[in-house]
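Ticket #4471: structure export looks truncated?
Reporter: QA, pipeline team
Priority: medium

Steps to reproduce: submit the single chain below to the structure queue and open the exported record.
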Amino acid sequence: MSGGAVASAATVHVRGLTTESRITGILEAFERQVDGVRGSAVADRDGLPIANGFKEPFDLLSVASMGTLGMQSARKVSEFIGVKPPRAVVLESDDAKIVIRDLGGGQATFIVVVRPEANLGFVKLQIETAAKRLEVELGLVPPSAGSGLEEVFLLTQGGVLISHLSRKMIHPTDRDVLGAMLVVVQEFVRDSFQGKGGALEEVRLANFHVRLIRGSHTSLALVCSRPLGERFLDHALGALGAFEQSNPGALDPWAGDANKLKNLDQLLEELINPPVS
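Actual output as written to the record:
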């Protein structure tokens, strides 16, 4: 990358979102991914609302307090019986299913209301993914538990964006920052394949590191708050290779339709939230 590009990247000021807006963004992303969701919310241990994802006219304070009370009651029942406390409780009625997910061992609660016909297995799977992100945002898990990865860009070797997944920057008000970051990442990918002075693999972007993982037809640009370990980089390279093997016809040449790619969401999600080994 040219010196001018690096200098301009360093002047990009990432506008910080509040914790509340980032949590609301997580709820909004969860609700977009699951059919039949009527709404979701996060409450503290006292049953007070932290964030609201409900679009229907529910009484948020009642939902938060009753959801917290339901989880506390389930924990007491488990204690009385002599079994471990539940991570989640499911309440079913004729017109809705309510899933209450514990966060941080009783420090907060994630409450989801879905329609009765919703696929409960898929709903619970997505709840687990969202719950991990919520626990990070609420400070309920140690920061060292993650890789430090904030953004994942999947691009062609020419720098054309195929897809992107973010840990935090998912709120509409941060799209301008994301756009500025994408411009720098695209130039980084293009410059890395020029072959002059060796291929570039990492560059600094303000307070972030951008690490490039190259496959046969695509590249991953990983934006992280600290340098990534070799074990994670090996995992990312293997995941990219498996993804490319699943999509040879769709990637070479790239036709521009991400909907035809197999396991695209799984690839990005696996990198943002890698399995605990």
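Status: closed, not a bug. The export was complete when the record was re-opened. Leaving a note from the reviewer for reference: The chain has two domains: 3-15+146-272, 34-141.
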